[in-house]
Amino acid sequence: MRLLTAIGLIMGLWFTTLPAQAACSLDDSLLLAKAGYSKAEIEAKCDGGGAAIAKSGPIGSLPKEMAPGSTFRDCPDCPEMVVIPPGNFEMGSDAAEQKWVDSLDETFFPGRAGPESPKHRVMIGYSFAVGKYEVTQAEWQSIMGNNPSEHKDPRNPVEHVSWKDAQEFIRRLNAKLRGVKPVPAGGDGPYRLLTEAEWEYAARAGTTTRFSWGDSLEGCEYANGPDLSVNSKEDMGWMTSNCHDGYGVRTAPVGSFRANPFGLHDMHGNVEEWVQDCFAENYNGAPTDGSAASGKDSCAHVVRGGSYDAYPSFLRSATRAANPYDSGGFRLARTL
Ligand SMILES: [Ca+2]
Ligand SMILES: [Ca+2]
User: Fold this and answer.
1) What is the structure's pLDDT at 219?
2) Does domain 71-335 bear CATH number 3.30.70.380?
3) CB neighbours of 263 closer than 8 A, spacing ≥ 6?
4) CA 224 to ligand 1 centroid distance, Å
5) For the whole model, what pTM was predicted?
6) pLDDT digits (tens, 9 = 90+) for 98-126
7) Distance 223 CA to ligand 1 centre (A)
8) How many CB atoms within 10 Å of residue 9?
9) Can you give the residue ranges of every domain in the chain?
10) Which residues contact 259 (CB under 8 A, 6 or more apart)?
11) What average pLDDT score do residues 246-262 get?
């Protein structure tokens, strides 16, 4: 953090001496972004600089400390972030996976895999950072001054948060980092929600199986999901994974389970996570560059990853759900 602060001071000094509309290099622009300047501020001074940040190009052009897999915090009590590399992947599920989902004893929601079609290639042409964990109750409390969660523990993910609440948290976090009073909604980051495509890219972490641990429903080492305790304790009457994950029908402290190949925990299970996008019935016309399928703030936004009390198949990397309720958790993305 001292390094980042030093960079911020140096860049701040340099920033003030920049001639208007200078042509900044990619690294210059990235350093300005790391120093806390918004995309709009950088674009005002660096011709094309903001665009360079949005599409930050090959890994080799990034400063060393932003190498994929490295972690950082922007302030002592800020969430820990992991640098995710550019890449491409197949988003969604194919007919075979959808047939498998339909074959499960999930009679309440048959045919749920439909919105995951058509499977399509998405190019993420930029590095970005993703929260190593879901936002915790302690992190929420420090920014918002309250805790709406049902399963109270400062180490556990915050839940019962609406999409708009999550946006307010992000707005206040960004303002805190800039050392100014809250800015109007829509102000530039660097923090934001993941887009739906970014979320699936980060959850798959290079894997092509149903879950990042493989194809089996039994992922009790990797996720707090609907394990055997769902029926034995709650008699909820639906199928579970055939194992015990140790946390029953409640949230677990973040990071209690093994990370995926990108070093991210709890992408599958624990709490379902808000992403930026509005839900659509299928992927026809969906963005293929990592951007969000946006709409009105009042749309039904997407949640990803399933939760401790969902169906086991909801924990798949491809599962998407519209959430019309004001109840979810989330993790942060950070523009680099
Ligand atoms: Ca569980
Ligand atoms: Ca989760």
Assistant:
1) 92
2) no
3) 69, 71, 82, 132
4) 4
5) 0.79
6) 888 888 765 555 555 678 999 999 999 99
7) 8
8) 11
9) 7-63, 71-335
10) 132, 265
11) 96
